[in-house]
Amino acid sequence: MSSTYLGIEVIFAPSLFSTRQIRGNSIVVVVDILRAGTTICAAFQEGADKIIPVSSIEKALWYKEKKGYLITGERDGIKLEIADFGNSPLEILRHDIKGKTLVITTTNGTRAIEIAQGNGQVVIGAFTNLQYVAEWLIVQKKNIMILCAGWRETFSLEDSIFAGALTEYLILKESSYSLHDSASAAQEFWRMARGNLASYLKKGSHYQRLVKLGAQEDLDYSVVLNSTKVVPVMENNYFKNILK
Ligand code: 3SL
Fold it and tell me: Which of 97, 150, 182, 198 could tie 156 with a disulfide, CB 3.0–4.6 Å?
């Protein structure tokens, strides 16, 4: 297949994913900027070996009890009682997790990952690994579906703006991608926001929720471009950093 026909599409909320025909030869980029995707990238940057995403707390507990894996997780932004770490990139960075397997369960991010599984390759995209995930995607020469985790099945500002940033990066480096209308719209969001990303994202409802929960440091960390040289790609039921 010629790369001329490769496309980029953005799915702005998980609830829309089932309505899309996943084309053969596709990669799904799952995006949860605040904070699951950014946490996964931070954990790999710190040397985690594998990260297993699960959508239920029961499953996470099973891994802790049966396998002794570390748990990172939250519901509605609040650290789970069974968790070793909250869903916080900065909390992860304060611990030695080199060579460890982590299990992650979150309100929206791990659910979006679960939806994407079984539909082609799955990779995590975040502002912190923007350049690295984009360069990897270009080499794969596949259709790209950017799936935004959003909040409770609906649109979220930060994930949609990231989808635009990734679209822009991809199209600048490889102009033969064709853009679905959703990707063009996301690109416009990014162009509006990029001059002052941190301040633009403050308009987002989840951003405000995390401010109230005292997570300002995570918010600041999550908007730094290319700070984690990692590309988390799903193999079987876990992510590995393929740049390791
Ligand atoms: O919903 C999610 O997956 C989380 O990333 C939400 S939070 O940022 O941890 O509140």
Answer: 150
Question: Per-residue pLDDT tens for 62-121?
Answer: 999 999 999 999 999 999 999 999 999 999 999 999 999 999 999 999 999 999 998 789
Ligand 1 centroid to residue 171 C-alpha, Å:
29
Residues in contact with ligand 1 by the CB-under-6-Å rule are: 32, 34-36, 74, 77, 87, 106-109, 149, 210
- CB-based burial label for 195 (10 Å; 0-12, 13-18, 19+): exposed
Q: Residue 109, SS3?
A: helix
Residue whose CA lies nearest to ligand 1 atom number 10: 77
Span from the CA of 87 to the centroid of ligand 1 (angstroms): 7
On whether residue 64 sits in a domain, the answer given is yes
Mean of pLDDT over the chain: 95
Contacts of 235 (CB under 8 A, 6+ apart): none
Has this prediction a pTM greater than 0.85?
yes
Nearest atom within ligand 1 for CA of residue 35: 5
On whether residue 14 sits in a domain, the answer given is yes
**Inside any domain, residue 131:** yes
Ligand 1 pocket test, pick from 107, 152, 217 with the greatest ligand atom count within 8 Å of Cβ, gives: 107
> Following CA atoms 213, 227, 167, 118 in sequence, which dihedral angle do they give, to the nearest 10 degrees?
-70
Q: Residue 117 domain-assigned?
A: yes
Q: What pLDDT digit, counting tens, does each position of 133-150 carry? A: 999 999 999 999 999 999
Q: Which residues form the domain of 130?
A: 6-241
Question: How many domains is the chain built from?
Answer: 1
